[in-house]
Amino acid sequence: MPPLDEYAVSHHDLSSGIVVLKKRQRNLSLLAILSSSILIASVVGLFLQQDLVYGFFGLSTEVQQLHVPVSLDEQFTYGGNSPDYFLSLLSWFGWLILKIFASFIGAFVAISLLKKLRYFYVRFQSFVLKFVGWLIAFIVIWSGLTYWQHDLNDHQDNAYQALVYYENHIHESEIAQSLAGANVTVPVKSYLLAQTALLHQPADLATAKPYVAALVEAEQKDAKFERYGFKAEQLWVMQQQVYEKTLTPIAESVKTQVQTANQLSDIVKLFLMGLIVVSIILSVIFYLLARSIQARTARIEHRILD
Known about the structure:
This protein has 306 residues and is mostly helical. 74% of the residues lie in helices and 0% in strands. It is built from ten helices and no strands.
């Protein structure tokens, strides 16, 4: 009968097994982080998906950017571009995803680097202190990226906000004062001032309503209305925001786009809800497996020390 020592596991084999277990735990932890990040992005996307889908079709639930019609003389410009809601929302959403992933993963990287220093290595043995350190790193990275984002858009945003800003009365705004001294037709003035009122924070519906009404009347009576170069999508948004319905043929021409956008929005919503459920399940599974392997590794290491 062979001696029992032949069946004993060597110290080398145990050490190799621990290395393998720790590698598996790390991979499972990374998968849990990835699925959690997808979960966060999906939840954010669920709240933003309608605006993103509407923006893809050049629409919006409310006026968000100033559109200057092409009928204005080139010398009378405000530096505003045609509203591109989709690109604006996509840019904002892209920055959000970047900040979430960079802050989430960067915080773990920062903790790993700090643990190479003995001072932090000793203190990060405590889960509470490690979490506090991770949270501080997350906030620092998020704040840095947010500052960078605002710095890139600061000049353009300041010029744009100064153009449409007013406190109490729309005639205090720079755009209204410029229009007052310019040879611009009444429909064009109404188009620009209606947008200015709706861009006010909060939206100045009482001021916008007479200008939108003037646009509705002009479309019904002015045979040259289409020559002003008004954007159909912008007219639709203004009428929806003020009256909650479409009143004119040009705004009604956007109806097909709106229907398609609503259908696509419903599909995206169902997809994101399914993705959220799957992400929750996977996050929990990966986390529990990682914790189980971690506990198993700790028991083996404890027995080796004993």
